[in-house]
Sequence to fold (335 residues):
Amino acid sequence: MFEPGRIIVTGGAGFIGSNFVRWVVENTDTHVTVLDKLTYAGNLENIAGLPEERVTFALGDVCDEGLLEKLVPEVDAVVHFAAESHNDNSIADSQPFLRTNVGGTYQLLETCRRHGRRLHHVSTDEVYGDLALDDPTRFTEETPYRPSSPYSSTKAASDMLVRAWVRTYGVCATISNCSNNYGPYQHVEKFIPRQITNLIDGARPKLYGDGLNVRDWIHTEDHSSAVWAILTGGRPGETYLVGADGERSNISVLREILKAFGMAEEVFDWVRDRPGHDRRYAIDPTKLRTELGWVPRHTNFAEGLAATIQWYRDNEAWWRPVKKATEAKYAEQGR
Ligand code: NAD
Ligand code: DAU
Fold:
């Protein structure tokens, strides 16, 4: 068992990273340094109120070699969440995705190599491309890489760098590929928060294409416990898929949200599909469950969704400042 006393969490002011930092503070004694550039997706509010003796914030870029040289030797491990994360943005402008997702991972690998530090790389199931709706299989650690979008291809590239640095230089690293997260602090550009905040605003939700695309939803808290299990118990050099048997079509998720707002199920707009839109993702988490004994806690999607809706109702001050600009960007894309 690896028991880190101090870790860096890159991207710890974003959605999943900040939920992970909170999980670490609540469930362990480990000290966390959050390294985050505070892009449009990062928000210090996400980690506000955490005890100062447990969490330190460092403003900076994962591509900044000099900064990594100062921070990395001081910790036992780096948990790497920082990324450009939104598919639609990557279609509009892929350059920041190349820079942060590929270049940033490269800099971290090099720094961890120089100082013999452990790295856990957080990645996505999108590296495996998509499955047909009627395909009985799910993604496993052996599924070949077949990314479709600029975003997922940069994540696939970053995974490949990690694998190469493990094999060539013996860097002690693990990788996790997780499915779609939901929960508090998710940016309103993403599917579930966008629809919830539209409805709070009296605007109509927007559904891409035919709405039959399937995503495999997992509560972000379950992703956090999985990342911790892999960081502390995973075998170096190994990849673990993270998912909680949460396959749902987009239209069925939207109908659940509409129902929670007491709205009729047809009160939404069909909008232009996303180019290259992946049809279905589905994770087989057997390796994580059997090898590390991980089990998800949030297995009731309706309950998790209701709590998430309530969080957005209670935290309008958190999302209001970015809602208008986010919708203006979508309007430009016809979505
Ligand atoms: P997010 O966009 O909400 O947060 C990303 C964070 O990274 C932000 O705080 C941002 O400021 C920071 N960041 C961006 N570029 C940076 C840079 N160059 N240097 C330092 N910090 C930088 O993303 P998220 O949804 O929380 O995703 C986090 C990670 O999890 C990503 O690596 C993503 O690929 C992966 N992932 C996400 C999901 C999902 O459903 N959202 C699922 C599987 C994996
Ligand atoms: O699978 C893991 C991935 O999940 C992560 O790697 C990504 O970082 C994360 O953003 C997410 O990617 P998706 O593209 O699946 O998530 P998004 O929330 O953008 O969209 C979810 C689905 O909903 C997708 O099929 C597109 C659709 N959609 C999205 C929006 C924003 C709509 O129908 N309407 C919308 O308004």
Observations:
- The mean pLDDT is 98.
- The chain is about 40% helix and 15% strand.
- The domain at 6-185+218-245+277-297 is CATH 3.40.50.720 (Rossmann fold).
